[in-house]
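Troubleshooting: if your tokenizer reports a length mismatch, compare your output against this known-good record of 230 residues.
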Amino acid sequence: MSRPVLRLAASRGGPLVAGMIEALARTWEMQVEGEEHLARARDGGGILYCFWHGRMLELAPLHAHRRIGILVSGHPDGLMAARIVGPLGYVPILGSQRRNPVAGFRAMLRHARQGGDLALAPDAHSDVHRVLPGAAALARRTGHALLPVAAGARPRRRIESWDRFEVPWPGARVHVLYGPPVWVPATADPGTTREASHALERTLRALHVRVEAKLDGELACPAGEAVAVR
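Known-good structure output:
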């Protein structure tokens, strides 16, 4: 999440920022595509939503107030982000795929075993738009489907941050696209789990190409079929 937003959360409180986000979202023209993939993932059990860090703002209102467990860093920026996502109806889970993977992984497992869906951004500061292995490992342990989600907006502002954090303007067109779910069997070996990560990354990249094309008024090809990694 962008530093200006996080600084506001620290100085004025997360509930105020959460309310501002929801008020902003009510002005957007929201278009959602690929809901058949969401339904198919849901039919298979729990869902692990996966998205790039820089597109959190478009997605946060869409999935709010569903008690989704979302992984946030234990870094001060992550702690401030937790103050925002909590009032939006998420369950912030402290951890990091890089800095504190074990604690976050265990907490996400507990939330999944209580029947909760999960969400995380599988890229990181040193690996922007690269899927780190934690998402596929978590899917293998929980049985949740990895569900890639892309989003974009016009008009928008992109913050000069490592993740190019995107802020849609009031009244913006926001396009959200769900991609084909990826299932990772509990019996998957390390090679299979790595392939699941690669499949998720390829899909996220392709979905974002489609989102940008859609927002620019170009036709885009279908998102494809569900993927089961074996």
